Amino acid sequence: MNIESLNLVTSQGATTAYVARPHEEVSAAIVLIQEWWGINDHIRDLAGRYANQGYLCVAPDLYRGRIAADTGEASALMNALAIEDGMETISKAIDAAKATYPVEKFGITGFCMGGTFALRAACEINELAAAAPFYGDIPDETVLAKLSVPTLFIAGTRDAWINPEKVNTLKEAARQHHLPVEVVSYDADHAFFNDTRPQVYDPEAAADAWKRVLAHFRKHLSAGATSTAA
Predict the structure, then answer these.
(1) Each residue of 179-189: pLDDT tens digit?
(2) Rounded to whole angstroms, how far apart are CA atoms 167 and 51?
(3) pTM (whole model) above 0.85
């Protein structure tokens, strides 16, 4: 696995994208959107997991180098990040990856704040072929109605933020607008996939979600190794 960086120029200033790349040439990429903490060790580890599955993984730095030290700082950074700014950075990362690597298809995933951006990107960015947001907020129905990308939405029934009521609005919009959305909910808390946070991490739910997400991307991106190792 190779670790690289892409330079991105946006209307709000320069940033980078963390890239984990298999040694062999691959034709599909996963765009990985950070939690509210920033591009920390957990996100870099996840990028490596995708690279080990045979994907180019690109994690754009929406905070432009800043990493939150605690929940207060994370909340402040997230609240200061405009949706338009984050979406532009994601688009620039896709453009840079297309210009740099021979990738043909892109999937997107993200966690917490990253799940919010991943779901919205699936509604608004045409280059995406699949999406797998984890416990992100649900956009307005006018945005959701544009969703045409096959989407696997992962939630936790004990999540106080992306609670079952919010998840039900996604299910209802999917029914009304015939959206290509599958929702999988686990008896787990918010951020249950984050193995650096023992207070919420659920290894059983995380392992099952990982298998489902890999199968989803393999189906729609037609790439990736056959291994399901974490």
Answers:
(1) 999 999 999 99
(2) 30
(3) yes
